[in-house]
# Entry
Amino acid sequence: MKFATCLNCMDSRAQLPVIHWVKENCGVDYVDMITEAGMDGILADEHYKDVDSLLKKIDISLEKHNSSIIFVVGHHDCGGSPVDDETHKKQIRIAVEKVKSWKPSCLYNWIMGLK
Ligand SMILES: [Zn+2]
# Structure
C-alpha cells in the first residue's frame, strides 16, 4: 500500500477529483487528506502560527503510512482563500517551499484545479 499526503482545502469539491488525480498520476493507493479552509493561503501567510498542529498530521501520514510525497492544492472559487487564480499559484509555490523547509526529504507536487 502506497500513500501520498495532500494539504488541501476543506471544500468538498476539491476532495474526490484530487484523490483520483493523485492516485492515477502518482501510483499511490491512498491519499491522506489534511484540510483547512484555503490551505494554500494559510500556508503562504507569513504570520501563520499553527504549524505544530499541521506538522503533527503530516508526521502521521509520513511515519505511519510511509508517505514520501506531499501535495499542496489550491482551487478556483475558494471561499477560504478568495483570490484570483494567479495569486493561488503564487500561494501554492510559497506553501510548497515552506513545507519543504519542514520536510526536506519528501517529494513535492502541487495542483491548481477546478475551473
Ligand atoms: Zn477552498
The pocket of zinc ion is lined by residues 9, 11, 38, 75, 78-80 (CB under 6 Å).
